[in-house]
């Protein structure tokens, strides 16, 4: 069929050493950037995305168009669709799966808890079931989150720190994902690497994230809300630029060992890893807003409110020595440099569209 032909073309690798990668959540923010990076260096890449309406689907379609032009075909479908996944694995012997499809966002979990269970738990299990039975078994790299550190008060966060106090259902679903991944590694010998991303930002970013809607609201002259603790110090985040995250993802894929299929029986054979991918330099949201004001040349109308107990933690800060050691991970973009690139993209992207009413 045409569908199969598109998949075979998209999966074609340009050099012998290259991998064939299934990228789930390919029309998402991180998925788009990772897919492009893999394609550019010669890997075979197939995307999968259900184009859900959590945020602006036009933006997802625009990313898809960009991927299409780069030769990455994005299959429209859900990671819960066993038949579809089986069909994909029948057509393409994937060496790797980069699993980025998820229900993201911490506050939305209070409105739609079921979508977190659907995508982050049931969907992940469905994908792992297919991977476990695939021949060859692909090595899996997937996105966990810094949110697993929850109400932990020890900074910076290290991979060995406690993760037993999730502050939102989103965090709990990512933590559950880590436990599920460990089980599949142990029983079925799947090679699995979890990456705990810290607040990723950049061009083609997510409209539900603060740096994005602050930009929009500042330009529109709309008031923005900054949350702060009882000490009147604003929330701080270890903002990490998308290109740094992409490098970490690619390096995790490249260093992933093959799945063994033998699970815990052959000791030490199947690989299970978890890494922080952050910037190691937390910035208070007040500072983020100052940088945006400078770049946009507009003063923000600010309102300060106490941090609600709905999922956001007060600060995040990554210790990245493990990723540095094993992945050669080294973030190089500071917040101002990264935001400059975001703002440039934002203005170009929304020029002429409805949003540019400012
Ligand atoms: P995103 O929402 O832009 O991308 C996720 C994509 O997955 C979306 O395009 C969505 O349509 C798709 N998707 C969702 N559920 C699906 C399903 N059931 N089947 C198929 N497709 C589905 O988010 P992102 O920022 O690109 O995040 C990528 C991954 O990184 C997610 O797992 C997210 O939880 C994780 N993460 C992101 C950040 C960040 O700051 N951006 C931080 C920590 C972790």
UniProtKB/TrEMBL annotation:
Keywords: Carbohydrate metabolism, Golgi apparatus, Isomerase, Membrane, NAD, Transmembrane, Transmembrane helix. The keyword Signal does not apply. GO terms for molecular function: UDP-glucuronate 4-epimerase activity. It catalyses: UDP-alpha-D-glucuronate = UDP-alpha-D-galacturonate. It is found in: Golgi apparatus, Golgi stack membrane. It is a multi-pass membrane protein. Its main location: Golgi. Residues 21-258 form the NAD-dependent epimerase/dehydratase domain. Its EC number is 5.1.3.6. GO terms for cellular component: Golgi cisterna membrane. Belongs to the NAD(P)-dependent epimerase/dehydratase family. Homodimer. This is UDP-glucuronate 4-epimerase. It comes from Rhodamnia argentea. The gene is LOC115746497.
């Amino acid at each position: 069929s045409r569908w199969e032909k598109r998949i075979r073309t998209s999966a074609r690798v340009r050099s012998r050493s290259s991998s064939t990668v299934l990228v789930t959540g390919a029309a998402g923010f991180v998925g788009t950037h990772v897919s492009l990076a893999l394609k550019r260096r010669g890997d075979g890449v197939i995307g999968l995305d259900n184009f859900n309406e959590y945020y602006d689907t036009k933006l997802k379609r625009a990313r898809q168009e960009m991927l299409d032009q780069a030769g990455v075909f994005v299959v429209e479908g859900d990671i819960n669709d066993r038949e579809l996944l089986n069909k994909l694995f029948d057509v393409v012997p994937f060496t790797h799966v980069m699993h980025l499809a998820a229900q993201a966002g911490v506050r939305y979990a209070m409105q739609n808890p079921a979508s977190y269970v659907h995508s982050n738990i049931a969907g992940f299990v469905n994908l792992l079931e297919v991977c476990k039975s695939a021949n060859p078994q692909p090595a899996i790299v997937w996105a966990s989150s810094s949110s697993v550190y929850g109400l932990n008060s020890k900074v910076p966060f290290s991979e060995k720190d406690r993760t037993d106090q999730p502050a939102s259902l989103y965090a709990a679903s990512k933590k559950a994902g880590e436990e599920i991944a460990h089980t599949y590694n142990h029983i079925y010998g799947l090679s699995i690497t979890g990456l705990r991303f810290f607040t990723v930002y950049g061009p083609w970013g997510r409209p539900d994230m603060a740096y994005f809607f602050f930009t929009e609201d500042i330009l529109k002259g709309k008031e923005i809300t900054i949350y702060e603790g009882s000490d009147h110090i604003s929330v701080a985040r270890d903002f990490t630029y998308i290109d740094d995250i992409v490098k970490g993802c690619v390096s995790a894929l490249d260093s992933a060992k093959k799945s063994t299929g033998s699970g815990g029986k052959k000791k030490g054979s199947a690989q299970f890893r978890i890494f922080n991918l952050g910037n190691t330099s937390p910035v208070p949201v007040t500072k983020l807003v100052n940088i945006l004001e400078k770049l946009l040349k507009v003063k923000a109308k600010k309102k300060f409110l106490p941090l609600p107990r709905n999922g956001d933690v007060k600060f995040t800060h990554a210790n990245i020595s493990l990723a540095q050691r094993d992945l050669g991970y080294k973030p190089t973009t500071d917040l101002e440099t990264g935001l400059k690139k975001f703002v440039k993209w934002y203005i170009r992207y929304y020029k002429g569209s409805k949003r540019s009413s400012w």
